[in-house]
Amino acid sequence: MAVFSSDKILLGSSALSFNLPDSISGKTLSLDTLKSDKATVIMFICNHCPYVKHVLIEMVKLSNEYIKKGVAFIAISSNDIEKYPEDSPQNMKNLALEIKMPFVYLFDESQDVARSYDAVCTPDFYVYDGRLKLVYHGQMDDSRPGNPNPNNGKDLRNALDCILNKKPVPENQKPSMGCSIKWK
Question: Among 38, 73, 149, 162, which lies 20 to 30 A Cα-Cα from 126?
Fold first, then answer.
């Protein structure tokens, strides 16, 4: 399995609007209705990727903790479901309900949102401040399938803690690593 790293994206760039169907509720939701005035985390994930599976429980734990602090979390799957049926909206919904995702899990069928965000891999984390300016784009932590590093979300937690404490987020950020987005 090939490992891909997220591309470096200009910090300070604005989050781009989208309207996507939520696999859980079936409703079409927008960034404008989901964002937080404190911080918004956009996560490109999917069901089948072993890198996502590796961090998924910590991702749920971390989001449950930070949602209570006013942070919004948005998960998006952009994979080609014809080639990867495990990533279909119904399977997205099944996974979300099974692990009790506290965030929406949106389906980007056209893959336009992933392209507009320059998303490359799953998982891929983007953290925006209250003005929807990018302050963090990188890994959740140093943990990967098969390595001994703790799966604790330390890099993502640090970025969120900096925002919530009105401190600058360090600009030295490690890219996410995982499976490539499965383009049509």
Answer: 149
Strand pairing of 28-30 and 19-21?
Answer: antiparallel
Q: What is the pTM of this model?
A: 0.96
The answer on pLDDT for 46 being more than 60 is yes
Are the beta carbons of 57 and 64 closer than 8 angstroms? no
Token readout for 100 is 């009790």
* DSSP-assigned letters across all residues of the chain: ---EEPPP--TTPBPPP-EEEBTTT--EEEHHHH--SSEEEEEE--SS-HHHHHHHHHHHHHHHHHHTTTEEEEEEE---TTT-GGGSHHHHHHHHHHHT-SSEEEE-TT-HHHHHTT--EESEEEEEETT-BEEEEE-S-S--TTS-S--S-HHHHHHHHHHHTT-PPPS--PPPEEEEP---
Q: How far apart are CA 74 and CA 35, in angstroms?
A: 9
Mean pLDDT computed over every residue of the chain: 96
154 contacts: CB under 8 Å, gap ≥ 6: 141, 142
